[in-house]
Amino acid sequence: MTDEEKTYKTKKVITIGIVSELTGLSERQIRYYEERKLIFPERSDRGTRKYSFVDVETLMDIANQMEDGVRTFEIRQEMKKKPDEDKLKRSMIKGQLNAQFGIQKGLK
């Protein structure tokens, strides 16, 4: 993703302390989710973890699932499926829009 494609939601600029305040999770919990490969912060030159608003939303979702008794392994498995589901949804929406507006494949 280029810098131009990044939105305020995807830019990794939030420190772990702020994420902790926003989510109510401890810094230890956040690091644990990173260890379990559920969240992927970037690192600054000095090694500081940097998160995005999308990461904050993901952490809230993870915390809610954990409260419901879902294990980290199960969450990770679902997260792996999500990109495929999102791609399928986008493809279906595109097809519906093309059909609605009479756009045929190969025409621009």
TrEMBL record:
Keyword Acyltransferase listed: no
Keyword vocabulary terms for this entry: DNA-binding, Repressor, Transcription, Transcription regulation
Single GO MF descriptor: DNA-binding transcription factor activity
One matching Pfam family: MerR_1
N-terminal signal peptide: none
Keyword NAD among record annotations: no
Domain HTH merR-type as annotated: residue spans: 13-59
Database matches in PANTHER family: HTH-TYPE TRANSCRIPTIONAL REGULATOR TNRA, REDOX-CYCLING DRUG-SENSING TRANSCRIPTIONAL ACTIVATOR SOXR
Protein name: MerR family transcriptional regulator
Organism expressing this protein natively: Domibacillus aminovorans
